[in-house]
Amino acid sequence: MPKSLTRNPALSDVVFKNRWRDVFDGTVPEGWEPTLKVSVVTAAFNSKTLDLTLASLAAQDYPEELLEVIVIDDGSEPAVEIGTYAPKNTRLIRVHEELGEGWGRSNALRIGIEASDGDIIYWVDSDMILFSDNVREHAKWAHFIPEAATIGHKGFIEEWDFTPEQVFEEVRSGEIRKHHDLETLHRHWSLDIYEETDDLNASGGRNYSTHMGACATVTRSVYEQTFGQRPELKLGDDTEIAYQIWQRGAVFIPVQSAQTYHLGRATVQDKGREVAHFNDVHFAQRMPIPRYRRAATNRQWEVPFVTAVVKVDVDTAEVARRCVDMLLNQTESDLQVLLVGPWSTLETGRRRVLADPAVELHLLQEWYRCEGRVTMVEDDPDDVFPSPYRLDVPVTLGLGPSALNEIMRDVYGNDLGVVNYFPPEGVEQTEVLTIRPTQAYSRALRYASETVSPIEALDAVWGVEWRSSKELGLIDLRTAEPVKKITRGDSDLAMADLREQLALARQRIENIRNRAHANRKRAEIAEARAEALGIKRRVRNKVGRVTRGLRRS
């Protein structure tokens, strides 16, 4: 962790990046009892297993008064009815598509979450059987980490003949666990990621896609800072909301002790390619990370990778045009520019246009009127969510064509927090180029107070650093030589492309190493188990021989 600032005692329990182990390892104090209310939301459409899910929820050991279940009937025919075995605080909401209430899982879950009031939101699919301590194992994390987003452990079973009464009784008694050994069932791909990242402890949250809605939670205080479930998404909505809560500072925690049976095969087992083909387009628009999803360059996306903020006034309007044009000509083109200025003060009535003191602001406004990547705003929005990075650019600075690529190669590549770049020689020290990750800022805001400054909070959650700007090609636009045209050369693009390819190659090599290490560990475990079983067999055989000998004698 960077040591650029002295740690404020008030920040002793703040999670740095996604290192949840440093704050809470899952061991609760003796005699601990939960106090936070859990809202389970379940969307159902012609579900044949909902009764089993509700029966398992009714048998939870979590305090009854702290558990509510919202079932959203997404237009089932016949309509959903709540059976005998369901939690006491269960409500049924039916979605009427014909009345314009929408359709689809994400739409239904949005309605359910809005109708709930728990401190913890728990997404549970209608084809899950939760073991008796499941809710408790999920919920305990939020009591110790306010930004907790937990992911449960699923065992996929393909055949079953459970009844609701049987599920209720066996979940409550613990007998349900004896039907299947979870270790022998289909191995979900997320388990490989957990092994490679020390249960996401070393992931920085970038593996947010493991937070899947079949059995996952987040604290309401984090969820309410997002846009919420996107009704327009018909597949992959759990991944998209996971991206949102990541950008809002969630701490992702796999809870292997929160065990379930998933009734049926995993979708990716049968339709993985079709699902990925459909989702990748929707994901690319809304989630700039991971970077591979955006296979096209030099184009606009709904959520930009970087949002650059440039503040302009009457005195700086003339240099602002060159500043922004140099930003738009970066080799890293996945960005949006927010041009903050006094646009509402501009006179539009009859006037002597050439003598207007704000003539340069008028010209600046016209220059970018049709530019889709530039938005003129009156006030600094401060928060650029869901864009993952905010770049503050002093209007008097011009960035070399590969500057943003260099910045992101370092900041994104090394998962850094706030990075400030020293101004070039001759430029005032107050004119600092700064980049800030949204997920760090979102979490830091929760801890900033009268006794904790925002910069202290940022340093505690992700780190604050200073870097040299020599490699960025920064120029002082007030003294720089005028140019006829701002262009981006082929050599700049080629160099940026080579660097990107090199970074991808290094990442692939690192992934291969991680997988090899994980495979070695699994092989060692399997070998140890086999050896243990062999010893047991030899002991049993020896005991059998002795027993038979005693009988004969």
List the SSEs and their pairings.
Elements: E1 38-44, H1 50-58, E2 67-73, E3 90-94, H2 105-115, E4 120-124, E5 128-130, H3 134-144, E6 148-157, H4 164-173, H5 190-196, E7 215-219, H6 220-223, H7 237-247, E8 251-263, H8 267-286, E9 306-311, H9 317-328, E10 335-340, H10 359-367, E11 374-377, E12 389-392, E13 397-398, H11 403-411, E14 418-421, E15 433-437, H12 438-445, H13 454-461, E16 464-467, E17 475-476, H14 490-552
InterPro entries: Glyco_trans_2-like, Nucleotide-diphossugar_trans
Protein name: 4,4'-diaponeurosporenoate glycosyltransferase
Main location: membrane
Specify the structural class. alpha/beta
By CATH reckoning, the class of the largest domain would read Alpha Beta
Low-confidence stretches: none
Spatial order of the strands forming the largest sheet: 11-10-9-12-15-14-16
Here the CATH topology of the largest domain equals: Spore Coat Polysaccharide Biosynthesis Protein SpsA, Chain A
Q: What is the CATH superfamily of the largest domain? A: Spore Coat Polysaccharide Biosynthesis Protein SpsA, Chain A
Number of strands: 17
Give the biggest beta sheet. 7 strands, mixed
The pLDDT mean sits at 91
Give the % helix: 25-40%
Overall, the morphology is: globular
In the CATH classification, which architecture of the largest domain applies?
Alpha-Beta Complex
Evaluate the radius of gyration.
28 Å
Distance between the termini: 71 Å
Number of domains: 3
